[in-house]
Write a structure and sequence with these properties.
Blueprint lengths: L7 H6 L3 E5 L8 H11 L5 E5 L5 E2 L2 E2 L13 E4 L6 H11 L3 E4 L9 H17 L2 E3 L6 E3 L4 E3 L8 E8 L2 H13 L4 E6 L8 H9 L6 E6 L5 H11 L5 E5 L4 H11 L6 H11 L2 E3 L2 H13 L8 E5 L2 H13 L9 H8 L12 E2 L6 H13 L5 E5 L4 H15 L6 H29 L3 E4 L7 E5 L2 E6 L2 H21 L3
Parallel strand pairs: 1-2, 1-5, 5-6, 6-7, 10-11, 10-12, 12-13, 13-14, 15-16, 15-17, 17-18, 18-20
Antiparallel strand pairs: 3-4, 8-9, 8-11, 19-20
Helix pairs in contact: 3-4, 5-10, 6-7, 7-9, 10-16, 11-16, 13-15, 14-15
């Protein structure tokens, strides 16, 4: 799919120079927070603080206005009161700046007076050919450019997941999750009131960028549903898009309208549009993160058929129940795989899918079973329950023994036991990554311990590790839906 987009977006997300209008040295002021985030990462471009009352800010020369900056500026970021934005945009025009991010609030979300001011800044921007994000946004991030214009530093690893959010708070929470979970970010766009740049225009831009592998969206309302669905149908044929539509209740719908001034609309209409345009719909921010991260790092399954390996019967039963609820199918094991596993599993193993390895702890046995299931032509994804996490059990056992008297094991023996368990888990994860790469099928691991999502790095790639069977099933259920959509509609 070849798309054309507004090249001013490149100036916005990959700037060589940035001016922060309203820059400040006062802690907790927006102009200080935004400037600190930009300077606190590894942005290679030039930064120009703009403040008529200061000569120096955070060690950089400050300028009275944009017009006074003695160099070319790609992007202006505004953190000043709303009533100063019209003149600020005129300064952009005089300076030849074609892209801006307006952090400032106080526009249509506060009522008629703010709406009038918002109309004015839109008119000024259009008159002078300026494209802006916002207003009433917490900013943008471009991880591959090491550029972060938001009120709190996150410093995410550059990667393949892009995020579009109409809520600043939820957007920042997702950014923190991405950073702490080692998921990898490409671009984050907090769209705010979407006075100029609409969500579907950012979606189109992200769809055209090769470094973007999947897109997560938090949506409160869409003004032009036809334009949005047209763009979404084009983008989803090339890469997965995962979205949460808030405001499905009457109270939530009213809250969305007062938040950004967006029109929440009928939740059923949005759901139908998402389904028709290939958007994977989820219902919570946590699920948005899990599914979009999985869509970034895992291949899409070609069908809804799943194989499960578990170290205990209870987890296998729970996972099987969840699969049925999620529309996933567990085919019966063929005779060939039963015979293959008979040679390595105890005589009393269950001989069905889910495969119960009855408490065995050998990583080589795990990998033999997982590989057999991944080779099986009747399934297109695999869940491995309990293959990692025993090292935490060993740590807890050692801590308990040391509280007693510490004499049962020497320190050297305890460290040796823990090291051996960690190495076994690393071997297991590396093997899963290899099998996933060779088979082209998603393999999701569920740990014995809590902790939510983690991405384990191995020499063969990253492995998706979750803390509950229901999370693993939910992820594969959503990805299987997307795989079916691509099969029916064809990739771009």
């Amino acid at each position: 799919m070849k798309q054309h987009y507004d090249v001013r977006l490149d100036k916005m997300f990959f700037p060589r120079s940035v001016a922060v209008v309203g820059a400040s040295e006062v802690p907790a002021k927006w102009g200080n927070l935004i400037l600190t985030s930009i300077l606190g990462w590894s942005f290679p471009g030039t930064v120009f603080p703009v403040n008529p009352k200061k000569d120096m800010i955070l060690g950089l020369p400050a300028y009275p206005s944009l017009r006074d900056i003695p160099a070319e500026v790609d992007l202006a970021v505004f953190a000043v009161p709303a009533q100063l934005i019209p003149e600020g945009l005129r300064d952009c025009a005089a300076k030849g700046i074609k892209a801006a991010v307006i952090i400032s609030s106080g526009f249509r979300e506060i009522g008629a007076e703010g709406a009038k001011l918002e109309e004015e800044i839109a008119a000024v921007a259009r008159e002078h050919g300026i494209l802006f994000m916002g207003p009433n946004t917490m900013g943008i991030v471009s991880a591959h450019a090491f550029f972060e214009a938001i009120p709190t530093p996150t410093g995410p690893e550059p990667g393949g997941l892009a995020v579009i959010s109409q809520s600043g708070n939820i957007g920042l929470q997702i950014l923190k999750w991405i950073s702490h979970r080692n998921i990898g970010l490409s671009i984050y766009a907090g769209t705010g009131n979407e006075t100029m740049l609409k969500a579907h225009e950012i979606l189109k831009y992200l769809g055209a960028r090769d470094e973007v592998k999947a897109i997560a969206m938090y949506i409160e309302g869409i003004d032009d549903g036809r334009a949005f669905s047209t763009v979404a149908a084009e983008v989803t044929r090339k890469k997965p898009v995962v979205a949460i539509k808030s405001g499905r209740s009457q109270a939530g719908s009213k809250a969305a309208q007062s938040h950004t001034g967006s029109m929440a609309g009928s939740f059923a209409v949005y759901s139908a549009m998402f389904s028709q345009s290939g958007i994977i719909q989820v219902s919570t921010p946590t699920r948005l993160l899990l599914v979009s991260a999985a869509a970034t790092h895992l291949p899409a399954p070609r069908s809804n058929r799943v194989a499960i390996m578990t170290i205990g019967g209870g987890w296998g039963i729970v996972a099987a129940d969840e699969c049925e609820d999620a529309g996933l199918v567990l085919p019966p094991l063929p005779d060939g795989i039963v015979e293959e596993l008979d040679a390595i599993l105890p005589a009393y193993w269950n001989r069905r899918n889910p495969v119960d390895v009855v408490g065995e702890g050998d990583p080589n046995l795990y990998l033999t079973v997982i590989e057999a299931l991944a080779r099986w032509e009747e399934v297109d994804s695999v869940i491995a329950l309990g293959v990692v996490g025993r090292s935490r059990y060993v740590e807890d056992f050692i801590a308990a023994q040391e509280k007693l008297d510490g004499k049962l094991y020497t320190r050297e023996l305890k460290l040796s036991i823990l090291k051996a368990q960690i190495q076994a888990e690393e071997l297991t994860l590396s093997g899963i990554a290899r099998i996933q790469k060779e088979s082209g099928k998603p393999i999701v691991a569920v740990a014995l311990t809590a902790g939510g999502l983690s991405l384990a790095d191995t020499s063969h790639g990253k492995v998706f590790v979750l803390s509950t069977p229901e999370d693993a099933v939910s992820i594969l259920g959503h990805l299987a839906w997307y795989g079916r959509y691509l099969k029916e509609n064809g990739p771009a």
